[in-house]
């Protein structure tokens, strides 16, 4: 469903107002916008730029530098699998392959029904109970194939 | 009845929230009045969720707990199948020297009262009564060095900021903890956030900074919310604000969240990010201590560096300095991770051998297979083979063996690990996370992946190329992302040459 541009702009303006007086407000603003819309809508960029007296290209440049910010909405759920070394030593690569097969998607892709987006992550700080995953902010330790299968049933 | 159920992210990842709910439900069903405290983790991650019941003898531990194990907590607890005995008496706990992590897992993380009952705020009170220069001197005398990786003396950094003249100075806490196998910052922020707040307030008093930022990661949602709550409690309790503990001197702070860029752990990249810019690394000079956040003098310190300051101020520099070995003073929070039987956080004085840490404390691998290699210090740290297990855990000894201790994370891998694959991953990670400022890092890492693929395909002529490439990255990179990626790569090649030959590949298939 395309977002109503006027609604986007009014929410963006609210967010900008909430961040007035902050030192270095751009990342907090982008986080707040992504929190509201699930991504950072294109329409928001010129408004942010004008508010912070930056160019649109500068705002886009900042946004694109960071892996977290999305230009397009993700699926209804985001499944992040840790790919870093400690998790690898406990089979993270196998988990990633299993998840990709089970959901039928590669990294950064979303299932056709829009239910799940798969993202790699480099360490969740759960390295002593690896492999680790995060499902919409919920943490999972000692991930195994059965747990991925259960998630595939659960995430709709 | 008082029951502790850790609220630490690792405990939650292993089901602690369900266990906590089950405790409340079961107690209600039995008509037992129960107080559930969501403490931090004691660090014994293999026992999480580790539930503790307060008894007349002390806190009895039970773990790893599942929901099904909860009802038996209300019966004869000594006969409980998951009973561990008194937590404090467990060998893993008794062998530690918990200075920085003394309260983690013990206190209610958001209770200022509990904090004070466990020696909290004593360091800050002492600092308030001192001249700023004397605080800096005390930290210098303690021998504390940066726990974020580079090991720079904390007191010397503080002195530079103290001596700088400016209308505004800042304390920035580097809580970006992006290294694989590290979680000490996370555990401290979740389990004892007031210690970090106290450390930052002391830093502020010492250098004349009134504003602090904790820059942490979006991958740490629990730590973010815990820090935010703790800051509010500290403000309400007069620890932060216009008059820190009634001293008439101001210090306040806030939490900022990164956006999934590993390089933002590098201090100048972090400052750019905090200012709302691309997290590109800045050339030094100017030092952040002179021109840091908003071009103002700024202390940038790791969480554990700052969180070690309260105990130093409370017990004195000499007390802290007496722990350790050589020029590595005090304690280090080892994070033992990966394929390991007893994984977790173990705080101890510098100087244990790598073998003691891995085989003895860690108990070898979780898989039960032989340990093949241990990566120390995260993705920029070297892989150590068993032959180097006698290396004492100090900054100097690890450097002498072509490695680094970094933030003290250890990834243990068993004999199924393919070191060529790990070398390739190191290059791939560098390519993904490079800030893009210098060619040896940005392009070199991509070439590194290609070269390793060639070697993996059986082309041994790629090996000298890889070695040259690593030399170029080492000498031509502005920061340690490009500059240290050669550590994991070259250590893998040097110590495990068989993994880089075609015969090995065939044998494995
Ligand atoms: C690529 C890269 C990533 C880094 N990541 C971190 C980090 O996550 N946390 C940290 O404290 N230091 C990190 N550092 C080191 C910091 O640049 C800096 O040395 C440290 O914050 C200084 O604090 P300390 O003296 O208390 O260690 C990183 C350095 C590099 C080059
Ligand atoms: S070495 Fe890599 S990460 Fe560091 S400044 Fe250069 S390009 Fe950026
Ligand atoms: S390496 Fe996967 S959680 Fe840290
Ligand atoms: S600094 Fe620009 S390419 Fe090296």
TrEMBL record, chain A:
It comes from the Bacteria. It comes from Gemmobacter caeni. Transmembrane segments: none annotated. Keywords: 2Fe-2S, Iron, Iron-sulfur, Metal-binding. SUPFAM superfamilies: Thioredoxin-like. NCBIfam families: PRK05988.1. This is Formate dehydrogenase gamma subunit. PANTHER family: BIFURCATING [FEFE] HYDROGENASE GAMMA SUBUNIT, NADH-QUINONE OXIDOREDUCTASE, E SUBUNIT. Belongs to the complex I 24 kDa subunit family. One of its GO terms (molecular function) is oxidoreductase activity. [2Fe-2S] cluster binds at residues 82, 87, 123, 127. The keyword Iron applies. Binds 1 [2Fe-2S] cluster. It holds the Pfam family 2Fe-2S_thioredx. Its cofactor is [2Fe-2S] cluster. The keyword Methyltransferase does not apply.
Automatic annotation (TrEMBL), chain B:
Belongs to the complex I 51 kDa subunit family. SUPFAM superfamilies: Nqo1 FMN-binding domain-like (SSF142019), Nqo1 middle domain-like (SSF142984), Nqo1C-terminal domain-like (SSF140490). PROSITE patterns: COMPLEX1_51K_1, COMPLEX1_51K_2. Pfam families: Complex1_51K (PF01512), NADH_4Fe-4S (PF10589). It comes from Gemmobacter caeni. Keywords: 4Fe-4S, Iron, Iron-sulfur, Metal-binding. Its cofactor is FMN; [4Fe-4S] cluster. GO terms for molecular function: 4 iron, 4 sulfur cluster binding; FMN binding; metal ion binding; NADH dehydrogenase (ubiquinone) activity. This is Formate dehydrogenase beta subunit. The keyword Cytoplasm does not apply. InterPro entries: NADH-UbQ_OxRdtase_51kDa_CS, Nuo51_FMN-bd, Nuo51_FMN-bd_sf, Nuop51_4Fe4S-bd, Nuop51_4Fe4S-bd_sf. PANTHER family: NADH-QUINONE OXIDOREDUCTASE SUBUNIT F (PTHR43578:SF3). The keyword Iron-sulfur applies. Residues 420-465 form the NADH-ubiquinone oxidoreductase 51kDa subunit iron-sulphur binding domain.
